[in-house]
Design goal:
The protein is of the alpha+beta class. The chain has one domain: C8orf32 fold (Roll), CATH 3.10.620.30.
Protein backbone atom coordinates (compact mmCIF):
# COMPACT_ATOMS: atom_id res chain seq x y z
CA UNK A 1 0.00 0.00 0.00
CA UNK A 2 1.83 3.07 -1.31
CA UNK A 3 1.50 6.45 0.39
CA UNK A 4 2.13 8.33 -2.87
CA UNK A 5 -1.01 6.95 -4.52
CA UNK A 6 -3.31 7.13 -1.47
CA UNK A 7 -6.51 9.20 -1.62
CA UNK A 8 -7.29 11.31 1.45
CA UNK A 9 -10.76 10.73 2.89
CA UNK A 10 -12.96 13.76 3.60
CA UNK A 11 -13.84 12.28 7.00
CA UNK A 12 -12.34 9.71 9.33
CA UNK A 13 -14.00 6.32 9.40
CA UNK A 14 -14.43 4.17 12.46
CA UNK A 15 -13.10 0.59 12.43
CA UNK A 16 -15.24 -2.37 11.37
CA UNK A 17 -17.77 -0.47 9.27
CA UNK A 18 -20.86 -2.43 8.29
CA UNK A 19 -21.93 -0.01 5.53
CA UNK A 20 -20.20 2.73 3.56
CA UNK A 21 -21.63 5.09 0.95
CA UNK A 22 -19.20 7.09 -1.20
CA UNK A 23 -19.39 9.27 -4.30
CA UNK A 24 -16.76 8.40 -6.91
CA UNK A 25 -15.51 11.06 -9.29
CA UNK A 26 -12.72 12.15 -11.58
CA UNK A 27 -12.80 9.11 -13.88
CA UNK A 28 -15.16 7.12 -16.06
CA UNK A 29 -16.48 4.16 -14.05
CA UNK A 30 -17.17 2.08 -17.15
CA UNK A 31 -15.42 -1.28 -17.29
CA UNK A 32 -14.94 -1.67 -13.55
CA UNK A 33 -16.60 -4.43 -11.52
CA UNK A 34 -18.24 -2.07 -9.04
CA UNK A 35 -21.70 -3.65 -8.82
CA UNK A 36 -22.54 -7.08 -7.47
CA UNK A 37 -22.43 -8.96 -4.22
CA UNK A 38 -21.72 -6.62 -1.33
CA UNK A 39 -21.54 -3.58 -3.63
CA UNK A 40 -24.28 -1.53 -5.31
CA UNK A 41 -23.66 1.32 -7.75
CA UNK A 42 -26.28 4.07 -8.06
CA UNK A 43 -25.00 6.54 -10.64
CA UNK A 44 -21.69 7.70 -9.20
CA UNK A 45 -22.56 6.57 -5.66
CA UNK A 46 -21.12 3.27 -4.44
CA UNK A 47 -22.76 1.52 -1.49
CA UNK A 48 -20.74 -1.23 0.19
CA UNK A 49 -22.41 -3.47 2.78
CA UNK A 50 -20.41 -5.91 4.90
CA UNK A 51 -21.70 -9.47 4.71
CA UNK A 52 -23.93 -10.62 7.56
CA UNK A 53 -23.42 -13.78 9.60
CA UNK A 54 -26.04 -15.51 7.44
CA UNK A 55 -23.95 -14.83 4.32
CA UNK A 56 -21.07 -16.81 5.83
CA UNK A 57 -23.09 -20.05 5.87
CA UNK A 58 -22.19 -21.86 2.66
CA UNK A 59 -24.89 -23.06 0.25
CA UNK A 60 -22.93 -26.30 -0.07
CA UNK A 61 -22.44 -28.59 2.92
CA UNK A 62 -18.93 -29.83 2.29
CA UNK A 63 -15.88 -28.50 0.52
CA UNK A 64 -15.80 -28.97 -3.23
CA UNK A 65 -14.18 -31.67 -5.31
CA UNK A 66 -10.83 -30.44 -6.62
CA UNK A 67 -11.76 -31.88 -10.03
CA UNK A 68 -14.65 -29.44 -10.38
CA UNK A 69 -14.80 -27.37 -13.57
CA UNK A 70 -15.25 -24.14 -11.61
CA UNK A 71 -12.45 -21.75 -12.68
CA UNK A 72 -12.25 -20.46 -9.11
CA UNK A 73 -11.03 -23.91 -8.01
CA UNK A 74 -8.37 -24.32 -10.70
CA UNK A 75 -4.64 -23.61 -10.39
CA UNK A 76 -3.31 -20.64 -12.34
CA UNK A 77 0.12 -19.13 -12.92
CA UNK A 78 1.29 -17.88 -9.49
CA UNK A 79 -1.67 -19.67 -7.84
CA UNK A 80 -0.23 -23.17 -7.50
CA UNK A 81 -3.20 -24.72 -5.71
CA UNK A 82 -2.37 -28.16 -7.12
CA UNK A 83 1.19 -28.18 -5.76
CA UNK A 84 1.77 -30.80 -3.05
CA UNK A 85 3.13 -28.25 -0.56
CA UNK A 86 0.08 -26.02 -0.98
CA UNK A 87 -2.34 -28.95 -0.75
CA UNK A 88 -0.64 -30.39 2.34
CA UNK A 89 -0.65 -27.01 4.07
CA UNK A 90 -4.34 -26.47 3.25
CA UNK A 91 -5.16 -29.89 4.70
CA UNK A 92 -3.19 -29.10 7.85
CA UNK A 93 -4.93 -25.74 8.32
CA UNK A 94 -8.38 -27.30 7.79
CA UNK A 95 -7.55 -29.73 10.61
CA UNK A 96 -10.20 -32.24 9.58
CA UNK A 97 -13.08 -29.79 9.09
CA UNK A 98 -15.24 -30.10 5.97
CA UNK A 99 -17.29 -26.96 6.73
CA UNK A 100 -16.42 -24.35 4.06
CA UNK A 101 -17.03 -21.41 6.39
CA UNK A 102 -14.80 -22.88 9.13
CA UNK A 103 -11.99 -23.75 6.73
CA UNK A 104 -12.17 -20.37 4.97
CA UNK A 105 -11.79 -18.56 8.30
CA UNK A 106 -9.00 -20.86 9.46
CA UNK A 107 -7.04 -20.09 6.29
CA UNK A 108 -7.64 -16.37 6.80
CA UNK A 109 -6.32 -16.54 10.37
CA UNK A 110 -3.32 -18.68 9.41
CA UNK A 111 -2.21 -16.37 6.59
CA UNK A 112 -2.66 -13.28 8.78
CA UNK A 113 -0.68 -14.82 11.64
CA UNK A 114 2.03 -16.48 9.54
CA UNK A 115 3.19 -13.74 7.14
CA UNK A 116 5.40 -10.84 8.12
CA UNK A 117 3.85 -7.62 6.80
CA UNK A 118 6.40 -6.04 4.46
CA UNK A 119 6.23 -4.21 1.12
CA UNK A 120 7.73 -6.35 -1.64
CA UNK A 121 8.57 -5.82 -5.31
CA UNK A 122 7.76 -8.32 -8.04
CA UNK A 123 5.02 -10.72 -9.08
CA UNK A 124 3.98 -12.82 -6.07
CA UNK A 125 3.71 -16.59 -6.31
CA UNK A 126 1.72 -18.48 -3.69
CA UNK A 127 4.35 -21.21 -3.49
CA UNK A 128 7.14 -18.65 -3.07
CA UNK A 129 5.17 -17.01 -0.24
CA UNK A 130 4.86 -20.38 1.53
CA UNK A 131 8.65 -20.47 1.63
CA UNK A 132 9.38 -16.81 2.49
CA UNK A 133 6.41 -16.09 4.81
CA UNK A 134 6.65 -12.36 4.02
CA UNK A 135 4.78 -9.89 1.84
CA UNK A 136 2.20 -7.18 1.40
CA UNK A 137 -1.46 -7.48 0.41
CA UNK A 138 -0.61 -9.18 -2.88
CA UNK A 139 1.32 -12.01 -1.22
CA UNK A 140 -1.37 -12.47 1.44
CA UNK A 141 -4.05 -12.61 -1.24
CA UNK A 142 -2.20 -14.97 -3.58
CA UNK A 143 -1.48 -17.42 -0.79
CA UNK A 144 -5.02 -17.28 0.59
CA UNK A 145 -6.61 -17.92 -2.80
CA UNK A 146 -4.26 -20.83 -3.54
CA UNK A 147 -4.89 -22.42 -0.13
CA UNK A 148 -8.65 -21.97 -0.39
CA UNK A 149 -8.73 -23.58 -3.84
CA UNK A 150 -6.53 -26.43 -2.60
CA UNK A 151 -9.01 -26.96 0.22
CA UNK A 152 -11.90 -27.11 -2.27
CA UNK A 153 -13.35 -23.64 -1.59
CA UNK A 154 -13.88 -21.44 -4.67
CA UNK A 155 -11.81 -18.27 -4.28
CA UNK A 156 -10.76 -15.32 -6.43
CA UNK A 157 -8.78 -12.10 -6.19
CA UNK A 158 -10.41 -8.69 -5.70
CA UNK A 159 -8.60 -5.37 -5.97
CA UNK A 160 -9.46 -1.73 -5.44
CA UNK A 161 -9.02 0.52 -2.45
CA UNK A 162 -9.27 0.09 1.31
CA UNK A 163 -9.41 2.69 4.05
CA UNK A 164 -6.58 2.93 6.59
CA UNK A 165 -6.01 5.79 9.02
CA UNK A 166 -7.56 8.65 7.09
CA UNK A 167 -6.79 7.57 3.52
CA UNK A 168 -7.91 5.08 0.87
CA UNK A 169 -5.00 2.95 -0.37
CA UNK A 170 -4.79 0.66 -3.39
CA UNK A 171 -5.20 -2.84 -2.02
CA UNK A 172 -5.93 -6.48 -2.92
CA UNK A 173 -7.91 -9.06 -0.96
CA UNK A 174 -9.60 -12.43 -1.60
CA UNK A 175 -13.24 -13.31 -2.11
CA UNK A 176 -14.52 -16.79 -1.24
CA UNK A 177 -17.75 -18.45 -2.30
CA UNK A 178 -19.94 -19.35 0.69
CA UNK A 179 -23.62 -18.39 0.47
CA UNK A 180 -22.43 -15.88 -2.13
CA UNK A 181 -19.09 -14.22 -2.78
CA UNK A 182 -17.70 -12.98 0.53
CA UNK A 183 -14.83 -10.49 0.84
CA UNK A 184 -12.18 -11.47 3.39
CA UNK A 185 -8.86 -9.82 4.22
CA UNK A 186 -5.93 -11.89 5.52
CA UNK A 187 -3.67 -8.82 5.39
CA UNK A 188 -5.82 -7.02 7.98
CA UNK A 189 -7.08 -10.17 9.68
CA UNK A 190 -10.74 -9.48 8.82
CA UNK A 191 -13.35 -12.20 8.19
CA UNK A 192 -15.41 -10.87 6.51
CA UNK A 193 -13.65 -7.70 5.34
CA UNK A 194 -15.22 -4.47 6.57
CA UNK A 195 -17.22 -2.15 4.33
CA UNK A 196 -14.29 0.22 3.70
CA UNK A 197 -13.02 -2.11 0.95
CA UNK A 198 -14.04 -0.71 -2.45
CA UNK A 199 -13.76 -3.41 -5.14
CA UNK A 200 -13.00 -2.21 -8.66
CA UNK A 201 -11.82 -5.43 -10.34
CA UNK A 202 -11.71 -9.20 -9.90
CA UNK A 203 -8.81 -11.24 -11.24
CA UNK A 204 -5.06 -11.37 -11.58
CA UNK A 205 -2.45 -8.95 -12.83
CA UNK A 206 -4.10 -8.40 -16.22
CA UNK A 207 -7.33 -7.20 -14.64
CA UNK A 208 -5.56 -5.29 -11.86
CA UNK A 209 -3.68 -3.23 -14.45
CA UNK A 210 -7.01 -1.45 -15.02
CA UNK A 211 -6.48 0.27 -11.66
CA UNK A 212 -3.69 2.32 -13.21
CA UNK A 213 -6.22 4.58 -14.90
CA UNK A 214 -7.54 5.56 -11.48
CA UNK A 215 -4.21 6.69 -10.06
CA UNK A 216 -4.05 10.46 -9.65
CA UNK A 217 -7.57 10.89 -11.07
CA UNK A 218 -10.07 9.12 -8.80
CA UNK A 219 -11.81 11.13 -6.08
CA UNK A 220 -13.73 9.58 -3.18
CA UNK A 221 -16.24 11.51 -1.07
CA UNK A 222 -17.63 9.71 1.97
CA UNK A 223 -21.31 10.62 2.38
CA UNK A 224 -22.61 8.07 4.89
CA UNK A 225 -21.33 5.35 7.22
CA UNK A 226 -22.92 2.80 9.49
Amino acid sequence: MLETTAIAANKRLRPKLSELRVVLGGVSLGGFNLAGGRQRLDGDTLIVTKETVDALAARYFTIQNANSNRPELKPEPFLESDHQEIMSLAERIADGSRDPRVVAERINTWVYDSLRKEVTVGIPSALHVVHTRVGDCNEHTQLYVALARAAGIPARIAAGLAYVDGKFYYHAWPEVLLRGWVAVDPTFGQFPADASHLRFVNGGLGQQAELLRLVGELTIKVVETR
